[in-house]
Protein: Integrator complex subunit 2
Organism: Oncorhynchus mykiss
Amino acid sequence: MSESAGLQFVSPYAFEAMQKVDVVRLAALSDPELRLLLPCLVRMALCAPADQSQSWAQDKKLILRLLSGVEAVNSIVALLSVDFHALEQDARKEQQLRHKAGGSNGESILVSQLQHGLTLEFEHSDPLRRLRLALSELLAIMNKVADSNGEWFLKSSELFESPVYLEEVADVLCILQAGTSVNRQTSHSAEH
């Protein structure tokens, strides 16, 4: 695992093991290295694979063994059970609303009124709400970038800058990306 000022990065060894789905090498990773790969590993182990071979079935068993007993796996599994199609539709509506409102953060389709600060709300939320909170924050930043006309700016984000929730927010972002890209592929193939 590579580290820079407290931030952790996937090592080249772990990346290659993941890329090649080399479960022997994955099993040799340290717990912190494995933690960085959890969202991908959980998805690989739980989602229906394109590969139906006996070899993959054996690899999947090893991956499941690697994941057993890792506390964060349950929260990632819960994130994967969300209806991504509905979430993506709401995100598109949110983008349209932000575009019409000129980027103001007044109304939100994804997030109703926050009872507490964003990070505290994230901590106390169910998986769907966590995905919605992160997505709303991400769309706000993307909107700010689009409105910046190439000028440099600084946009703080209570949620994305909180070291306490860094791993959980990274899990949410990874699952969001994977869930919405799978949903887009499914929608695209259904159109053809």
Q: What stands out?
A: Residues 185-192 have pLDDT under 50 and may be disordered. Residues 123 and 165 are 8 Å apart (CA to CA).
